[in-house]
Design a protein that fits this description.
70% helix; alpha/beta; rod-shaped; Thioredoxin_domain; Glutaredoxin; coiled coil; Thioredoxin-like_sf
Length: 378
């Protein structure tokens, strides 16, 4: 699979927007790694760049990177190794070269990077004190040797030829292979040039360019694999630290568990006693439940009897209501009959009184007639 990391340009606004929505945190190189303490200056704003450049007459290298640039991540590993070789250990014995880094996708630095034409990342800016900028170029991991050669040339111009840069063995092997292949092709090209075979010469040039391209791709793949190995080492170291911390936590918890075991044993005895008491209470509760069930059956029987009594009372009340109604009717009839008797009695009294009066009048009349009759006899 062909890997192309020779050039990284700033993303378009749409791509930048999509990168902000992802949940994965953007990669940022550490400002002061453990193996190169205080050797790489962090440029946060344009004023920092000016202060860094004019602060010293030594050779100053500024790396421009971006958080979204994967090539910058690979380049950063070798850049920091170069800083550890040439940056110096302390203030008393400073190194021949000063190193800094500037993040492209920072609002304070973006405009300045564009003015410096540092838009193809990673980008290298080289300054020399009051002389200002002496070199600038886009530098991928495959072209890291260009940076090394440029630094060596500039140090040689300063008379610091002894401070040459040592390149790692992996790139040295690939560079040696490329040089051998190139020299072999050059010798074949010279031999064929003597014979005047121009067509073959052109083919060899094309093959040479293709071989150089393949070698660059191999170097890039090698750098990617190397960066992945470094990242894996860091992850393994982190995991080892986590395991140590977890181990200490487990040991502490084991001690706590041992302490709690004694408490658990004592509580087991208490729990056994509580269990016995609970069983006794359960038996008592069962007995009470049986008595309660018996009481419920008695209550149900009483309820049934009460219901039957209520039915009987309802029937009696109905009969009493009927009888009361009949009694009221008889009372009404009796009162009506009594009233009729009273009226007949009054009428009878009136008739008797009238008869008495008539009898009295008759007796009186008879007496008068008798007296008259007697008087007549006399």
């Amino acid at each position: 699979m062909k890997t192309n990391i020779t050039e990284q340009s700033p993303p378009q606004p749409q791509a930048a927007q999509s990168s902000t929505t992802t949940t994965k945190e953007a990669w940022k190189p550490p400002s002061s790694p453990q193996n190169t303490p205080n050797k790489i200056f962090k440029i946060q704003q344009p004023q920092d760049l000016l202060s860094f450049v004019v602060a010293d007459e030594r050779l100053s290298i500024v790396k421009v990177y971006a958080s979204w640039c994967k090539t910058c991540k690979v380049f950063d590993i070798r850049y920091r190794k170069l800083a550890s070789q040439l940056g110096g250990g302390d203030v008393v014995q400073p190194g021949p070269v000063r190193f800094a880094e500037m993040q492209y996708d920072t609002p304070a630095n973006e405009e300045m990077c564009k003015l410096l034409n540092a838009t193809k990342l990673p980008y290298i800016l080289i300054y020399r004190g009051s002389q200002g900028k002496v070199a600038d170029f886009q530098c991928t991991p495959a072209k890291f040797q260009v940076l090394v050669d440029t630094v060596n040339d500039l140090l040689s111009d300063d008379g610091n030829g002894n401070d040459s840069v040592v390149v790692d063995s992996g790139n040295s092997t690939l560079a040696a292979l490329r040089n051998v292949t190139t020299s072999s092709l050059d010798s074949q090209q010279q031999q064929l040039s003597k014979d005047g075979d121009h067509n073959t010469n052109n083919e060899i040039k094309a093959l040479k360019e293709q071989l150089v391209l393949m070698e660059n791709e191999k170097i890039e793949m090698f750098e990617l694999m190397k960066a992945q190995i470094e990242a894996d080492k860091e992850e393994i170291a982190k995991m080892i630290n986590v395991v140590k911390i977890q181990k200490s936590m487990i040991e502490e918890r084991d001690e706590q568990i041992q302490k709690l075991s004694g408490e658990i044993e004592t509580r087991d005895g208490e729990l056994a006693a509580m269990t016995k008491n609970f069983n006794n209470q359960v038996k008592e509760n069962n007995k009470m439940e049986q008595e309660l069930a018996l009481g419920k059956s008695q209550v149900a029987d009483m309820t049934n009897r009460t219901a039957e009594a209520e039915k009987t009372i309802s029937a009696l009340e109905l009969k009493a209501a009927i009888r009361e109604k009949e009694a009221k009717e008889k009372e009404r009839q009796t009162k009506a009959l009594w009233a009729s008797w009273e009226r007949q009695k009054i009428k009878y009294e009136e008739e008797r009184n009238s008869v008495r009066k008539m009898a009295a009048l008759s007796v009186k009349s008879i007496k008068t007639k008798v007296r008259v009759f007697i008087s007549r006899k006399d």
